Amino acid sequence: MTGKAGIIGSILFALLPWNAVATETGTMICRGGIVSIGNAIPEVLQKCGPSAFSSQREQVEVGGSVKPGVSRTYTKVAVDDWTYNFGPNEFMYRVIFENGNVARTESLEWGY
Questions:
Q1: Could you identify which of 14, 47, 62, 87 might form a hypothetical disulfide with 33, taking C-beta atoms 3.0 to 4.6 angstroms apart as the criterion?
Q2: H or E element: which one contains 45?
Q3: Percent of the chain surpassing pLDDT 70
């Protein structure tokens, strides 16, 4: 996608309410193979190529007990969200990586 239409499309796509259109799938089929939970980023790139849209963030997960005197643990997790657009005849997919490995795949609406 290039030009103004591509930029506008990317902005509108980024504003979609993910939870309203996403269905967790566990796998994603690409021309180079099947992407599954646990696959590393290089493996996904090899099978599917670069994504149409991506974002990165870091989140903190809290573990441990809420009991008095028991300490909690805080773990930083690197999260990458990649969106694949396979065109108007196929669904788009979102791949969520945690610390470099696929944690979840979601089927979205039709591509464009």
A1: 47
A2: helix 41-48
A3: 79
- Name residues whose C-beta falls within 8 Å of residue 76's C-beta, 6 or more positions apart in sequence: 58, 59, 60
| Of 78, 73, 75, nearest in space to 100 by CA | 78
Residue type, 103: A
Map residue 8 onto helix, strand or coil. helix
Q: How many CB atoms lie within 10 A of CB 16?
A: 14
Q: Give the global pTM.
A: 0.72
Counting beta carbons within 10 angstroms of the beta carbon of residue 35, is it exposed (0 to 12), middle (13 to 18) or buried (19 or more)? buried
Q: Are strands 91-98 and 101-110 parallel, antiparallel or unpaired?
A: antiparallel
The number of beta carbons lying within 10 Å of the beta carbon of residue 53 is: 16
CB atoms within 10 A of CB 104: 15
On whether the CB atoms of residues 77 and 98 are closer than 8 A, the answer is: yes
**How many residues make up the chain in this entry?**
112
